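Lecture notes, continued. The same structure-token format from the folding unit now serves as the input rather than the output. Read the line below as a description of shape only.
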């Protein structure tokens, strides 16, 4: 029977997945090595695996196949063979709202507790609505793109020509459903950047002024620098990261965006960089810190079961050390923009509290940017102003 064929494939991939790579990258290489799988086999395997991981640690005592059927029912508005076979009583409910579906599951499985989906709720940043956050794990996030206002119509027309439904979030932000093959639809890469909605919204914290000198000190491939540059093209910019490979990607993205005026350095901010930076003082520092990424796990639900909670304190230490090492290069009266894509208090408000206690900084504002209400990631941003020592 076809359902057994689908299940065998699902179980085989699940058994082979060792969590060393993100699931989507693992699946790309798995499908490459298993060319006998047709496109329908691949589509069903991916759907089942993602649905399965979205259940996190909930109902972990149930048999695998039953958990898969529950997860697939909660995550999708369309039926699958697994739902029809193992949850026949819920087939007619497949198009219901998530809240109704969750109630059905609770009625049948008395032990179902949504708090076990993301088993770290005690450590969340204070302003997070726990119920909405937990429910968001059953909904696949959208794909967000940033476009120049002048290109908006052109990009919308290209998407419309391919019958891609588009949400216009603002004159510079569009969303499409995840999995949309944008590179095949919009061949001119100048026209858009892929960037999550919450990441785009961090730019409200930057406030750069003309001719200022800014440092994006954990720049990676330059997502935040590109935002900064869009806000104020007439700035001087230093970009740095510990990973040279990321800065090579950044150079290509800057080239496509026509950004030529910047300096680039490979810097490990856990070290003393006075020899390289002694002449530098900045009008603004972007610190998009290395973090657990817990605000993005809606896209990588495999993290729900593989994350080791001890890593939170590792990142907290890293963040405090890196922030402490960059503040001295900031001019008095100027902002440090501290950001993470984490939902953990220890990486957000606690780091801000530590910085306020130990350095001459004043908090102007901070916010947990709640992507979970918008099919987006969640991010944290704080704007801290350097005081005179
Ligand atoms: C969240 S990512 C930055 C994302 C980037 N700002 C963007 O918008 O695309 C954090 C970056 O911090 C860098 N990083 C980690 N440890 C570092 C260190 N000790 N010194 C400098 N950069 C570091 C990582 O290589 C990574 O690129």
């Amino acid at each position: 029977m076809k359902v057994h064929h689908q299940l065998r494939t699902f179980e085989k991939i699940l058994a082979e997945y060792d969590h060393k790579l993100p699931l989507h990258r693992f699946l790309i290489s798995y499908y490459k090595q298993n060319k006998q799988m047709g496109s329908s086999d691949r589509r069903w395997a991916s759907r089942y695996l993602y649905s399965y991981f979205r259940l996190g640690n909930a109902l972990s005592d149930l048999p695998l196949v039953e958990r898969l059927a529950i997860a697939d029912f909660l995550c999708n508005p369309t039926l699958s063979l697994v739902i029809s076979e193992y949850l026949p009583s819920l087939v007619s409910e497949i198009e219901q709202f998530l809240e109704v579906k969750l109630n059905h599951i609770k009625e049948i499985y008395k032990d179902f507790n949504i708090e076990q989906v993301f088993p770290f709720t005690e450590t969340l940043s204070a302003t997070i609505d726990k119920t909405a956050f937990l429910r968001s794990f059953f909904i696949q996030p959208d794909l967000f793109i940033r476009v120049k206002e002048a290109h908006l119509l052109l990009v919308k027309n290209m998407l419309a020509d391919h019958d891609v439904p588009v949400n216009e979030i603002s004159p510079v932000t569009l969303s499409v459903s995840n999995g949309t093959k944008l590179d095949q639809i919009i061949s001119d890469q100048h026209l858009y950047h892929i960037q999550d909605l919450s990441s785009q919204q961090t730019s409200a914290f930057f406030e750069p002024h003309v001719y200022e000198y800014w440092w994006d000190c954990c720049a990676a491939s330059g997502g935040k620098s590109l935002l900064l540059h869009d806000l104020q093209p007439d700035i001087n910019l230093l970009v740095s990261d510990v990973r040279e490979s990321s800065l090579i990607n950044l150079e290509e993205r800057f080239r496509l965006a026509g950004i030529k005026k910047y300096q680039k350095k490979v810097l490990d901010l856990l070290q003393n960089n006075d020899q390289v930076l002694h002449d530098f003082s900045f009008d603004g520092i972007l610190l998009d810190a290395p973090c657990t990424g817990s605000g993005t796990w809606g896209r990588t639900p495999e993290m729900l079961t593989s994350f080791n909670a001890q890593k939170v304190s590792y990142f907290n230490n890293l963040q405090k050390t890196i922030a402490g090492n960059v503040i001295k290069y900031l001019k008095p009266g100027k902002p440090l923009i501290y950001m993470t894509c984490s939902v953990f208090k220890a990486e957000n408000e606690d780091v801000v509290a530590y910085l306020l206690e130990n350095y001459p900084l004043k908090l102007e504002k901070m916010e947990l940017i709640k992507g979970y209400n918008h099919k987006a990631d969640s991010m944290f941003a704080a704007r801290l102003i350097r005081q005179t020592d």
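Point for the exam: The longest strand covers residues 361-369.
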